[in-house]
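Hi C.,

You asked whether I'd gotten around to modeling the 419-residue construct. I have! Everything is below, sequence then structure, no commentary in between.
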Amino acid sequence: MVYQDTIRDSDVIDGLNIRFLKLFGMWNAINEYRSTGKRPPVVKIHVFGTLIITIPYIVCQLQSFFNIDFDLQKLTYLYLHPLPAASLCCRILIFWFRMESISRLYNLMRNDFFNIPQHAKAGVKKIFKKISRLSNICCIFLLLWNAGIEILYLIFPGTSVDYIQHHTGSMAKVKTGRKKIFGGWYPVPMSEYPYYEIIFAYEFVCLFWAATLLAFYFCLFFQVLMCLYAQFLVLGFRLSSLKVDNDDSDSRKNNTYNKNNNTRIYEELREILLEHKKILSYTDELRSIYNPMVTITLGIGIMVLIIAAVQLLLGKTSDPSFIFQLVQVFSFEFLEVSLFCLGSSLIGTASSDLQFAIYCSDWYKLDVRFRKAAQMLMIRTNRNATLSAMVMYPVNLETLEAIIQFTYSATALMIGMVK
């Protein structure tokens, strides 16, 4: 463990909202880990609390294969909620085991991650504010949408215990039975006292604990992703700002060179080369953490999207609360998948646009050593900076389109099988 300085609020890039990190105690926890190397109690509570709460629920659903009757529609509904729970477990365990690397990645949030010259600070500040606004909107919207799902599930529990225990086919046809929050099966008489009350209380805890942390940890990872994007944009801005003064341009026309100005711009390019090497090391570390998590998120997201679509099309229920619940779950998973694809695509574009930024500089007015250094940087920018799923598949907006097509095809196939 390499100890690092704590990040103060004033060190955070302009406009970035870290209030939700403070609300969950993660901001102080990361700073404490950076300075001491010890995992703070709040992280241990998140990890062990999540495993204790979610694993029994997932295990019970696996046992339901051998204890109740089911068809394709009922099977998909039973696994609508355990899949996000499994996603949370994977996400939080990645955070636990890679906390050292994640705490280092928080350097990307610093407004002094790069050594910004005085003449470029105004432009860099505008970039930070623009990307911070985008990141804040995405995170706040996702958290609020998740809160809406939790409130609706609690106020309008829509799963009949009788359907889970005794019926198959359309859930809309089952009018009897007490209602509970999730579609889970448990190895107890679920409709009887006190088991029903205990199950309802347990699912209430699962709802607020697991669903809240699922959205929180997504925003935690997504915010770092957007900070990497912002730093790439800053590097591109600095490259495009490598301009020769007008006076120096006139002197070139007269075949005289302002050696001091050439040297100054060349030294700034050398500094940018070193900073590009630095951000590439952070990019490699980020990809080593995010690629397995993105693979899991996309895989589980696709399954939840298919399940929700099947239930909406085959359920044939007119209950508006149930329909709205499914739409919310569907849209929440779609938002997670979309935002990861968007963030990865933005980073890939910003990293490759460094070549165009070099072209926008006054390279043609400068000497040979500047041009050689610029060529070296252009070669380096060919490295892939996007996230990958299953090692080989790049994650970008084209991936999102492929996911939508696959979800549609798989849903149509499953509905055809039922009919």
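If it helps when you're writing up: The first strand starts at residue 159 and ends at 160.

Thanks,
B.
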